[in-house]
């Protein structure tokens, strides 16, 4: 007799939502029928009303050509190679996590068009020699771009591989001139519920916040992506500037960044706040440490029928393992 087994890597969409958030969503669903137009509930299938309200608005006027388009494609840095094929661009454009624009994988492609990319100002503050605000095009002129091939492993047990273009984060940190007392760099996404309706959801602490230690941010692998596939980043992928730290689960790689704050204090991230028993600060990839609700031993390689064994630090141990010496008491892998 044929018994159909669901493999451990086959997570349903948005399975990574912390359990208590999913429960709260259900409560919102129950209450949802009574919601007045304009009242926002939580993200999830039941809150389609939230997106409907958003979609019924006038679509934003189309933006002009991207002023940074001439910077792409940038020269590839041959030091960063892949052990697998690049994921087709069309998959990367259609399968995204960007909760500000919805919790289904296809929502960001449909809804992120509302994001305006110019003007786009990035704030650099906290423990720095001189706090400043810089327009994205001035930042792109100040620091040279390069292309790198990176793996990308989501905590939901799927993976991709892609050519990012961007700024080595250690160059950015040197340019930002943090003070010696800075221990962390805290990065935030924009906050605008008129553009991203799910940011009105009370289930998450918006704006999306993430952080790295200064040692991590100045590791050769940490990258600020401004493009992919030889062009400026697509909105659903986190335009105009996002983090790419391939040895960590994808949720560390915050999208559409508007501020970099250098701090002595470790930040509380959006996912830590939403599910502290499931998501931590470090979030380094480790096949031997399961998520509380599923195994991390394998990954589904999007765009193929492959399942691959997941590697420690997503295969980047040589570059990053030394960052975690002496931190064995910390929850490094969640
Ligand atoms: N950044 C913001 N602002 N909002 C998000 O919902 N999702 C994270 C991360 N950065 C997210 C985010 C998660 S869970 C993953 S796996 C990656 O973005 C997904 O990046 P991709 O859609 O380009 O594959």
Automatic annotation (TrEMBL):
Entry keyword Hydrolase: no
Cofactor detail note: Binds 1 Mo-molybdopterin (Mo-MPT) cofactor per subunit.
Keyword annotations of the record: Metal-binding, Molybdenum, Oxidoreductase, Signal
Enzyme Commission code(s) on record: 1.8.5.-
Named cofactor requirement(s): Mo-molybdopterin
Domain Oxidoreductase molybdopterin-binding: 118-271
Pfam families reported for this sequence: Oxidored_molyb
InterPro entries: MsrP, OxRdtase_Mopterin-bd_dom, OxRdtase_Mopterin-bd_sf, TAT_signal
PTMs per UniProt: Predicted to be exported by the Tat system. The position of the signal peptide cleavage has not been experimentally proven.
Catalysed reaction equations from the record: L-methionyl-[protein] + a quinone + H2O = L-methionyl-(S)-S-oxide-[protein] + a quinol; L-methionyl-[protein] + a quinone + H2O = L-methionyl-(R)-S-oxide-[protein] + a quinol
PROSITE patterns to which the protein is assigned, alphabetical: TAT
Protein's job: Part of the MsrPQ system that repairs oxidized periplasmic proteins containing methionine sulfoxide residues (Met-O), using respiratory chain electrons. Thus protects these proteins from oxidative-stress damage caused by reactive species of oxygen and chlorine generated by the host defense mechanisms. MsrPQ is essential for the maintenance of envelope integrity under bleach stress, rescuing a wide series of structurally unrelated periplasmic proteins from methionine oxidation.
Subunit structure: Heterodimer of a catalytic subunit (MsrP) and a heme-binding subunit (MsrQ).
Protein name: Protein-methionine-sulfoxide reductase catalytic subunit MsrP
Gene: msrP
């Amino acid at each position: 007799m044929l018994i159909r087994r669901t493999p451990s890597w086959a997570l349903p969409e948005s399975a990574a939502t912390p359990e208590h958030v999913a429960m709260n969503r259900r409560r919102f669903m129950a209450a949802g029928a009574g919601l007045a137009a304009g009242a926002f509930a939580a993200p999830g299938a039941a809150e389609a009303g939230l997106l409907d309200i958003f979609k019924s608005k006038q679509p934003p006027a189309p933006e002009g050509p991207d002023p940074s388009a001439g910077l792409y494609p940038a020269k590839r840095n041959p030091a960063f190679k892949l052990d697998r094929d690049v994921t087709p661009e069309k998959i990367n454009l259609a399968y995204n996590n960007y909760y500000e624009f919805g919790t289904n994988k296809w929502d960001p492609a449909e809804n992120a068009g509302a994001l305006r990319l110019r003007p786009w100002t990035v704030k650099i503050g906290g423990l720095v020699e001189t706090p400043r605000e810089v327009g994205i095009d001035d930042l792109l002129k100040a620091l040279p771009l390069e292309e790198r091939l990176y793996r990308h492993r989501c905590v939901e047990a799927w993976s991709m591989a892609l050519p990012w273009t961007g700024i080595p984060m250690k160059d950015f940190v040197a340019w930002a001139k943090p003070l010696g007392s800075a221990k962390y760099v805290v990065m935030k996404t924009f906050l605008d519920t008129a553009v991203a309706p799910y940011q009105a959801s009370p289930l998450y602490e918006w704006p999306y916040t993430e952080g790295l230690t200064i040692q991590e941010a100045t590791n050769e692998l940490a990258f600020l992506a401004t493009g992919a596939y030889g062009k400026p980043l697509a909105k659903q992928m986190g335009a105009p500037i996002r983090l790419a730290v391939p040895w960590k689960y994808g949720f560390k790689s915050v999208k559409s960044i508007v501020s970099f704050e250098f701090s002595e204090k470790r930040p509380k991230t959006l996912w830590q706040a939403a599910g502290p028993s499931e998501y931590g600060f470090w979030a380094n990839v480790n096949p031997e440490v399961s998520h509380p609700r599923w195994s991390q031993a394998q990954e589904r390689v999007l765009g193929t029928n492959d399942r691959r064994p997941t590697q420690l630090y997503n295969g980047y141990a040589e570059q990053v393992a030394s960052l975690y010496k002496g931190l064995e008491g910390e929850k490094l892998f969640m």
